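Hi U.,

Before I forget, here's the chain from the pilot set. I'm dumping it here mostly so it's searchable later in email.
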Amino acid sequence: MEKVTSSEELMETIISMNSEHSVRQFLIPGKGKFTVVLQEEDHLSISSEVKVNPELKRMIDESRVEYKQGKGMSTSELLKSLSPKDFE
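Structure:
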């Protein structure tokens, strides 16, 4: 398991993922162990699942509203919120 000690290393880990290397496990000291799974973006699949599962549609709609209200954060914002102290 690789050890990630900075937000730059975390971003490099994510960027290096592809369809052949789609699962990465890493440790952020002081935070814990993480597993990231790369999935191809498939709008039709999400659309199909929303039609089958009304609860999923409700959750997505709520998430969009909360994000617009400033209650969510993007990956970039998450990375910016991390400091070197978080990796100790």
